[in-house]
Each structure stands twice: as structure tokens, then as C-alpha cells.
């Protein structure tokens, strides 16, 4: 019976459970259909000309896509989650640090997301907010509990619906503005610098990109894992930014569901809002539970239930009091991905021992120190915080590993 619930949270995903291109693409697009990216797109749309907006989104998603694709390559080659990959770089117990950070922030965002769904639906329908929070929390927890198969089925439904209905709404908005020419002619009243714009674009989803291995480990081949990740970040994330920018310019509202409410498309708006947040929230809860499973050794499906209850019960409190802290804590996540990339490609040179054969350190203090310096760089140095974090953590980890003789010290995987 236990096999029915396994999502290989503490082991490699076997070849028989790997998925093909279209399933992986649907899951990754559902993952990148993220409301915060629409808000970021609204900020960019109000502060940049259309040409600069396109350039920033292209460059920003190039960085996001490259970062996520490198993590996807590691995951699809090893079949391991972010948290199990972390054991190689951080150590068996050192991996508890990234697992706790990733798990804690994602449970927090789950609670926030439930309220983000409930409040606008309450305004549109008059249904009591508390009941909407409970219903949303239960449904989103259910798909995370059922595991990757349920995430795939939901994404296969949600992605086409969001794509079609969202583009219908954007088309109506462009017509209302007088066409693309009129939209392109709009000049921002309060311009933002390219550095700020790039920071907004990259920062909007780089924390989520760090969780890429939790999903891409199910890809049948590295080619499928990397290609679907790149498409999702370029197409999915760019689409969210465009939805937000057009809505902000025409209606002064960056959330596509709110734009649809303004257009009188009530039922489509509820569908898009619900599916958009659902595909993000169940992925967040799923990834968080993989992290806590790494720490406790407990089965993921029971941890999903606990996390879902905590996120739902404290949803309003998290929404009202914790968003700022979650944003701050989320800057702690990009250094984790940078260290995983550095360890696999530059320190271990793409040669990991199989998980069951690997001899892990208890704690690799080089990784912990590199993470701390990356986190500090994100919050203290000028420039683009996520890039500061990634570059600092990566350079410190590689230099220290070679200086202290730790590079290539681990046994290679059996061929």
C-alpha cells in the first residue's frame, strides 16, 4: 500500500516512473504560471517603454532559464530532488539547511496563495472568505498529497485554460487601448532603470527556479528535462509578464484575473485565478514536503497533510504579516542553487556516486559558509540581488573547495 503514495522522496526516481516531453512541459508551464510574475510584469510595464520591456523580459528570462536549466540537467541525470542533491554539496545533515529554508518559505507562500485566491473570489461571488480559504487549502493540498501524477493531470488542464482565457483577455485589453500601436506609444510616467527592471524580472521567480529539480527529476532524458525547463521559463514566465504589463497599462491592474473581472468576464476570471494559483501552490507544497521529508525521513504524503493544514490554518496571518519576511527569506534560496550547480559541474566534475553508495560528510562547512556569504551579498551589495547571491556563492564555494583540497574527492558514480 505504501507504494501507492511514494514519490521517491528519499531515493532516485526509477526509469519506469520517468515522464515524456508533453507531461514534463505541462508540469513546468504550470509551475511558471505564477501570479507574482504578473505583478512584476505590471511594475515593468508601468516603468518601461514596450521595446525596453521586451528586452528586459528576454534578458531576465535568459538568466532564469539558464540557472533553472543547469539544475534541470543535474536532476534529470541523477533522478534526485533538490534536497537529495544537496546532500552531495552540503552533507547529509548540512542538507537540512537548504531543506528547511526551501520548505519553510514554500509553506509560507502556500498560505499566502490561498488567501490570494480567496479574497478576489469573495469580492466577485460574495462567498465567505473563510470557506474559500478552507476549500482552496483542501483542494491544493489534495493534489500535492497525490503526488507528481496529480500535478501532471492538473497542469494538463490548467495550462491550456490559462493560456487561452488569458490571451483572450489581453486581446480585449489591447483593442480597448486602440491596438498594439497605441499600446507601444504609451510612455512611462515614472521610468525605472534597467538595473531595477532586471532585478525585478529575475528576482520574481529565481527562488522558485531553485526548486526545479523537484519536478524535472521525473524527466525521461536530460534533453527532455532541459528543453521543457527552458521553454517553460521563456514561454510561461514571459506570458505572465506580458499579462501583467498589458493589464497595468490599460487597466492599472497587473493581475490578469482582476483585469478579467474589470472586463466582466467573471467566470473565466475565477477559473484563471483558481487554476493559476492552484498550479503554483500545489507545486510549492509538494516541494516543501520533499524538503521536510529529507530532514525527518518521514513519508512525503504525511508531511504534505501537515504542511497543508499549517498553511491553511495560518493563511490569513501569513498574508497579513509574513509577506515581507517571506520575500526576505526567499533571497536565501538562489545561493543554494548556485552551490548545487558549482558542486556538480565544477567541483565533482559531473561525477556523483549513486545515492545509496555515496559517503556524505555530516556537514560541509564550505557550502554553509558560501551560502551565508551569498545570502549577505543579496542583501548588502548594490546591483541585482539574485545575481549577487549566485555569483558570490558560486565563486566562494569553488575557490574554497579547490583551496582546501575537496575538489574531486568523492567517488564517481558507477558507469
UniProtKB/TrEMBL annotation:
Keyword tags: Membrane, Transmembrane, Transmembrane helix
Membrane topology type: Multi-pass membrane protein
Domain of life, source organism: Bacteria
Cell compartment(s), UniProt: Membrane
Sequence similarity: Belongs to the purine-cytosine permease (2.A.39) family.
Residue intervals passing through the bilayer: 21-41, 53-75, 96-118, 130-148, 153-172, 192-212, 224-250, 256-280, 301-319, 325-346, 358-381, 387-405
NCBIfam families in UniProt: PRK11017.1 (NF008241)
Pfam families to which the protein is assigned, alphabetical: Transp_cyt_pur (PF02133)
Protein's name in the database: Cytosine permease
Gene, per the UniProt record: codB
Amino acid at each position: 500500500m505504501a507504494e501507492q503514495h511514494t514519490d521517491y522522496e528519499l531515493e532516485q526516481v526509477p526509469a519506469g516512473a520517468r515522464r515524456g516531453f508533453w507531461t514534463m512541459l505541462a508540469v513546468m508551464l504550470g509551475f511558471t504560471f505564477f501570479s507574482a510574475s504578473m505583478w512584476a510584469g505590471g511594475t515593468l510595464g508601468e516603468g518601461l517603454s514596450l521595446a525596453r520591456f521586451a528586452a528586459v523580459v528576454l534578458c531576465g528570462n535568459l538568466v532564469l532559464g539558464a540557472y533553472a536549466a543547469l539544475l534541470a540537467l543535474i536532476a534529470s541525470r541523477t533522478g534526485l530532488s533538490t534536497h537529495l542533491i544537496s546532500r552531495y554539496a552540503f552533507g547529509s545533515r548540512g542538507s537540512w539547511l537548504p531543506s528547511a529554508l526551501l520548505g519553510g518559505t514554500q509553506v509560507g507562500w502556500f498560505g499566502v496563495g490561498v488567501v490570494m485566491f480567496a479574497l478576489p473570489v469573495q469580492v466577485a461571488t460574495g462567498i465567505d472568505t473563510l470557506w474559500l480559504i478552507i476549500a482552496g487549502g483542501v483542494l491544493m493540498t489534495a493534489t500535492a498529497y497525490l503526488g507528481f501524477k496529480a500535478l501532471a493531470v492538473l497542469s494538463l488542464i490548467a495550462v491550456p485554460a490559462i493560456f487561452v482565457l488569458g490571451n483572450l483577455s489581453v486581446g480585449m485589453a489591447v483593442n480597448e487601448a486602440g491596438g498594439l500601436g497605441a499600446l507601444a506609444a504609451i510612455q512611462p510616467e515614472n521610468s525605472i532603470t534597467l538595473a531595477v527592471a532586471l532585478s525585478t524580472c529575475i528576482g520574481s521567480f529565481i527562488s522558485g527556479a531553485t526548486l526545479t529539480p523537484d519536478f524535472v527529476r521525473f524527466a525521461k532524458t536530460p534533453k527532455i528535462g532541459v528543453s521543457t525547463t527552458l521553454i517553460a521559463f521563456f514561454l510561461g514566465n514571459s506570458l505572465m509578464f506580458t499579462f501583467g504589463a498589458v493589464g497595468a497599462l490599460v487597466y492599472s491592474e497587473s493581475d490578469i484575473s482582476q483585469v478579467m473581472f474589470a472586463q466582466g468576464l467573471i467566470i473565466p476570471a475565477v477559473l484563471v485565478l483558481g487554476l493559476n494559483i492552484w498550479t503554483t501552490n500545489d507545486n510549492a507544497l509538494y516541494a516543501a514536503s520533499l524538503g521536510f521529508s529529507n530532514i525527518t525521513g518521514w513519508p512525503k504524503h504525511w508531511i504534505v497533510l501537515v504542511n497543508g493544514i499549517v498553511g491553511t490554518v495560518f493563511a490569513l496571518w501569513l498574508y497579513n504579516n509574513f509577506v515581507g519576511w517571506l520575500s526576505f527569506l526567499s533571497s536565501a534560496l538562489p545561493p543554494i542553487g548556485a552551490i548545487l550547480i558549482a558542486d556538480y559541474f565544477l567541483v565533482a566534475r559531473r561525477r556523483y556516486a549513486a545515492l545509496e553508495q555515496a559517503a556524505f560528510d555530516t556537514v560541509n562547512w564550505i557550502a554553509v559558509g558560501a551560502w551565508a556569504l551569498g545570502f549577505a551579498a543579496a542583501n548588502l551589495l548594490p546591483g541585482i540581488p539574485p545575481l549577487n547571491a549566485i555569483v558570490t556563492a558560486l565563486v566562494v564555494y569553488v575557490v574554497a573547495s579547490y583551496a582546501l583540497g575537496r575538489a574531486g574527492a568523492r567517488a564517481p558514480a558507477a558507469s
